[in-house]
Design brief:
The complex is a heterodimer of chains A (141) and B (102). Chain A has 2 helices and 9 strands. Chain A has 141 residues and is α+β, with helices and mostly antiparallel strands. With 102 residues, chain B is mostly beta strands. In chain B, the strands form 2 sheets. A 4-stranded antiparallel β-sheet of chain B has the order 4-3-6-7, with no helix packed on it. In chain B, strands 1-2-5 form a 3-stranded antiparallel β-sheet, with no helix packed on it. In chain B, β1 and β2 form a beta hairpin. The chains are: A alpha+beta (141), B mainly beta (102). At the A-B interface, β6 and β7 of A face β4 and β5 of B.
Chain lengths: 141, 102
């Protein structure tokens, strides 16, 4: 773990001068957000968690999304948008009395993957979907 | 001025809760027509209570669309139960709305 942290730090230092490009910095933000969330724990792709989004969104300022999990004891459900300046868009924490289901609308800066990250007592699960954004949500993030 | 509206819909297996909040959800990266940055103003946290018991928390950011509209699914709601939704934004403004199941 300590070695990995060191390697990440080293990589970030090497990459720092390159971060001027928008693409690199957006993806870097995403990788960093995901790493902060997982704290080194494994993330497994699961068919039991469902993320519904349009294949192409007319307006990036308002992209409807819906997600649910067919897993027991869901602790949290998070939405990360890969190329948004702030990838973590929302976090839903259902307690007893609430189903692991959520529907809402998010902003997207450009066409990219949207990730659903679900935490249960057994670990972390993910599902992602590609969304084409026709008109980027201006100043999104 | 009611900024928060609630509506419930009793379905066979669960109760659908619809939440609509009147809020700009500015992320601080937009500019007004004079080229000035519009300060960030977004809901940070939203809570749903059923009879004073917390049933869900949602952490939000500026990348949630303005005038947020959410749909959730509550289990085990009886007539007479009280649903309350409250939120707070990054500038310390807050609001809440209540509804009794009929």
């Amino acid at each position: 773990m300590r070695r990995r942290q060191f390697l990440v730090l080293l990589r970030n230092l090497c990459l720092a001068p390159l971060l001027g490009s928008k693409l690199t910095s957006a993806n870097e933000q995403f990788t960093q957000s995901l790493a902060e969330l997982l704290q080194g724990q494994a993330l497994t792709e699961s068919a039991e968690i469902l993320l519904t989004l349009p294949d192409s969104a007319e307006d990036g300022a308002s992209v409807p999304l819906q997600f649910m999990a067919n897993l027991p004891q869901v602790r949290s459900m998070r939405i990360l948008v890969e190329k948004n300046p702030t990838p973590l868009s929302l976090a839903f924490f259902p307690q007893a009395g609430m189903r692991p289901y959520f529907s809402g609308r998010i902003k997207m800066a450009e066409s990219c993957y949207v990730w659903l990250i679900v935490e249960t007592h057994e670990g972390w699960w993910s599902s992602k979907r590609w969304v084409n954004v026709m008109k980027p949500g201006c100043g999104t993030g | 001025m009611a900024r928060t509206k609630l509506r419930v819909n009793q379905l066979a297996d669960f109760t659908e809760l619809k939440i609509l909040v009147n809020h700009p959800m500015e992320n601080g990266r937009n500019r007004d027509h004079n080229g000035q940055l519009i300060p960030a103003n977004f809901i940070r946290s939203l809570q749903v209570f059923c009879n004073q018991t917390l049933v869900a928390t949602v952490d939000l950011t500026g990348s949630v669309s303005k005038n947020p509209y959410f749909v959730m699914q509550l289990t085990k709601v009886q007539p007479g139960d009280q649903i309350r939704v409250s939120w707070e934004d990054n500038l310390g403004q807050s609001d809440n709305a209540e509804l009794t199941i009929t």
